């Protein structure tokens, strides 16, 4: 496998990948600049043959430098190269959050970057909103498009080989829990968007979805035969257990697994090292 530098969709912040990785600004298909970071597998400088890359997608109000995502990155870096990034409207990225719609383009840019760096196997691991994005991304960027070459073919293809959704919703507009009612208020009201911007560092678009994007549960059947892991906690305050059961039930049983974790709350901030290590092992042992 030949090591290659960032493709023309990425602008490097340092001249080359080092043992400590580097940061770039990725340009998405719709022209939004997204901050991203690359961390080689622990102990390596460039991708050795067969080393997978894991792209981590944070939840709403998260970002590249938030402690929960950094903790997850450290765990995954023991087994694979890791790419982290901030979704549009979050952290140092441009644009405004569409709360799971256009974010698919952000994840696609990160996956393309991973392949441009020489990684032939790329897994996506998303948390909460990032989990819904990982599911929809996998449905929209399939392997069959990579095999066809052209715009989506070759080393810069944006498809994922393995998918993990942690604490992800199954459907849109869910308001069945108090945290989700607060979130919907924050993204749908001008006062809420101001609080999100100045209190949580998250810039949210004012426009409603038009059209409504493919729902996570409708995206799941389109992922097979790629391996899919659904992880959810029995203490998740945002999405009750009917969400992961619906997602898993929509998947191909030959390639879909469901883990219901006792005592686990919600997304990357609640994920302990032991759970992250098991997910990393699962990802890196898939064919």
TrEMBL record:
Ranges that cross the membrane: none
Keywords: Hydrolase
Domain AB hydrolase-1: 52-144
GO molecular function terms noted in the UniProt entry: hydrolase activity
SUPFAM superfamilies recorded: alpha/beta-Hydrolases
Entry keyword Ribonucleoprotein: no
Matches recorded under Pfam families: Abhydrolase_1
Domain of life: Bacteria
UniProt-listed InterPro entries: AB_hydrolase, AB_hydrolase_1, AB_hydrolase_fold
Name under which the protein is recorded: Alpha/beta fold hydrolase
Biological source species: Streptomyces klenkii
